[in-house]
Amino acid sequence: MLRNASDSWGAPAKLFHWVTAALILAQIALGVMAASWRVSPTKIELFFWHKSTGMLILALVALRLLWRLANPPPEFPSGIAAWERAAARLSHLLLYALMIALPVTGWIVNSASNVPFRIFWLIPLPAIVAPDEPTADLVALVHGGLFVLLALVLVAHTGAALRHHFVKRNTVLVRMLPGTWRTP
Amino acid sequence: MKAMVAFLELCGLLAFAPRPAQGADWKMDPAGSKLEFVATFEKTAAPGVFKEFDARLRFDPDKPAGGGLDVTVKVTSADMNIADANKEIRGKDWFDYAAFPQAEFRSTDLRRIEGNRYVAHGTLLLKGVKQPVEVPFTWTYSADGAVMEGELTVKRGAFGIGAGEWAASNVIGADVKVKFKVKLRKAG
Asked: Is the full-model pTM beyond 0.90?
């Protein structure tokens, strides 16, 4: 089942969700380590993988949004309050916005700091701003701030999914799990 | 008396010694000259320049033997246009600006390869290390002088550029390309 149905996600949507989830967790670890490591070849390696993964996430998000446009998400199960629907919509909107804004601000930092970089050693990343140290420093701060916001939204997203499953006992979590899950 | 004879013989020898072929003396015009280096950073070219350097040359393109090339580079004028890299390369592991602010290349062995292509065999003194280096170049006369242009590859490790953990070449490559374009005017 490829396309989303009114009560379940199709396989591509699930794949996008879990691959992105895994990449984002790896990306957070890489970013935190890269930023805090002392200046050394290891620090440069960490940044290299962080930047490459970030560009991969950006590309995946673009594809994912296209897929989502062509495939409306399933409807909320019954028993979801208006505030819960609003909170879900807002957090999903924020997640998409952050999955774009974080790689883009990272890209700006890389351009402004003028560090030569090819994604996974293959694709040269074109500069989107001119080399300028104050710009690099400022946008790096914004990047860090957006990361904190992402961490908060991820906690809310995960917490909400667990609440749907264990407290509200609805299908919101299981219908995103791999494989086919029968509605109880 | 013996010393006197020896002295006179020495004077005689000097007087009759064949004079080296004297080419013209050339001075560098900094405005038209450029000295670049291209390091690699995660297998991607990371270019930089030495903003201040000087070259002096005694050279006759038709008779390169007997000429000489003398280049001094103000290592502390290196600029990679990357703020973090510029801070880093000053340090002991890299150029060590404090101890070795200047590099020199000296050659008294200039040879023609063919046509306008030549090579200067000489010694590069960089970060306190002397190594034999071959500098190939082309020679082109211009309206107001001549232009010497070429490039060579230097192994940074041979000069201790990138010491300790930086010696590994997987992140910062072992080879550094050096490119130069030197505009020369006849001196005197």
From this structure: no
| Facing residue for B42 by CB, picked from A39, A48, A133 | A48
Q: Write down the pLDDT at residue B187.
A: 85
Spatial distance between the Cα atoms of B175 and A88, rounded to a whole number of angstroms? 54
| Nearest-Cα residue of chain B relative to residue A117 | B44
Q: Over the Cα atoms of chain A, what is R_g?
A: 19
Minimum Cα–Cα distance from A45: chain B residue: B171
Computed over every residue of chain B, the mean pLDDT equals 91
Task: Report the C-alpha gap between B149 and A156 in whole angstroms.
Answer: 62
State the DSSP code for A78: S
pLDDT in tens, B30-59: 999 999 999 999 999 999 999 999 999 999
| Mutation site, B38, B44, B170, interface A, largest A CB count within 10 A | B44
Could you read off the pLDDT of A123-142 as tens digits, one per residue? 999 999 999 999 999 999 99
Nearest to B45 among A41, A116, A131 (CB): A116
Q: Which residues contact B139 (CB under 8 A, 6 or more apart)?
A: B59, B61, B116, B118, B146, B147, B148
Residues A163-174 have pLDDT tens digits of: 999 999 999 999
Superfamily of domain B20-183: Lipid/polyisoprenoid-binding, YceI-like (2.40.128.110)
Mean pLDDT for the stretch of residues A52-66? 98
Is A126 touching B (CB cutoff 8 A)? no
Query: Which among B42, B45, B81 is the nearest to A44, CB-wise?
Result: B42
> Where in chain B are the domains?
20-183
Helix, strand, coil distribution of chain A in percent, nearest 5:
70, 0, 30
CATH of domain A11-176: 1.20.950
Domain ranges of chain A: 11-176
What average pLDDT does range B11-31 have in this prediction? 66
